[in-house]
Amino acid sequence: MYVRDPVMDKQPYEYPYLPPFVGATFPPAEPGPDGHFDELAPQSRQFLAAHAFASASRVLDIWESYLGQPIVWYFADTYERLEIIPWVDWENAQSGYGYLELGREQGRDEVGHPYALNFDVIAHEMGHAMLFSLFGVPAGSLEGSDFGPFHEANADLISLLSFLHFDSGMDRLLRHSQANLLVLNELNRIAELTGDRQIRLASNARKMSEATEEIHDRSRPFTGAVFDTLVDLYHAGLVKQGLADNRLLGVDIRKVGQAEMRHISNFTGDAFRARPFLFKSELIRARDDVALALAGAWPHLDADNLTFADAAAAIVEAADRLGPAVPASFEENFRWREIL
User: pLDDT by residue (tens digit) across 243-264?
Assistant: First the structure.
């Protein structure tokens, strides 16, 4: 991958207007004497470029590690590398054939906040590029198919699980939530925006029969099922380590009331303050089990005939090698969501 930061007011890429960008660009980000980029001024164009590149590169590293092999771009016959455009004056972000470009969020303060500084958004768009590379692009129409909603759900999950690879982020998450992942927090708020807003929530109670045909709404049950599995495995690990009350395993995390939520927060909070590193270890274990199951399933999917049910079955099968608790949790949550 490489970065081009156009001087001109570039329009978003759209066929047949595709990379490479050949116009004038701002000077590239250059490392300091120690080889690092931490001397760049945060308000500079070079900081945008470096942050976008670093975030995209980190996401690729994470998922190539889970896959156990390099990802070959689906556009490799045309372009050797992914082109990253860190700033487009456009209230959106997108990845496409050979490119990733990042616009801005129009905040409530009427200031444009660059998506090049939003790791969640970058990770989501990188997720689309990686998924296309792993199981292809459909040859036929996408209308009425599960392909689009499945892509959105898994791009959200790639973002969510990638976030958990930052120690500082994980520490803040556990500290702010008092180790209770059921409350609104940095993990289940997909693509946090300015203020107390986000693009989507991973923790939701949506079933397939309740979802509309709108692509993002139809993605929610699948995202929710995988998020529930992450939390189930985390809770099971806490109970096994004696860090949480056994009654936690009997809680339906989709139907937790306020009183029950306070009870969970109280006993997880007390235990977390006493043994924070053990809580973090259990979250890392749950993260890796969920990510390995997803990565194990993706290369075996068929873009032209993809359904949520087939994808869920492939994930359960891929999870079998991780021990009985992981596929059992996935299957239970997929069934509750009416996916299996």
Answer: 877 766 766 666 666 766 666 6
Domain residue spans in the chain? 2-135, 167-336
The length of the chain is 340
> Would you identify the CATH topology of the domain 2-135?
Elastase; domain 1 (3.10.170)
Q: Of 310, 306, 315, which Cα lies nearest the Cα of 142?
A: 306
C-alpha count within 13 angstroms, C-beta hemisphere, residue 282:
24
Separation of alpha carbons 125 and 147, rounded Å: 16
CB 99 within 8 Å of CB 126 = no
Residue type, 68: G
Q: What is the pTM of this model?
A: 0.92
Q: Compute the distance between CA of residue 35 and CA of residue 200 in angstroms, rounded to an integer.
A: 37
How far, CA to CA in Å, does 229 sit from each of 52, 60, 234, 336? 30, 23, 8, 12
2, β-bridge pairs: 83
Instruction: Choose among 23, 18, 30, 32: nearest CA to 5.
Output: 23
Whether 244 and 271 have beta carbons less than 8 Å apart is answered as yes
Closest among 308, 299, 12 to 151, alpha carbons compared? 308
Q: How many CB atoms lie within 10 A of CB 272?
A: 23
Cα–Cα dist 261/273, whole Å:
18
Please report, in angstroms and rounded to a whole number, the separation of the first and last CA atoms in the chain. 38
Backbone phi, psi, residue 8, to 5°: -70, 165
**318 against 248, higher pLDDT:** 318
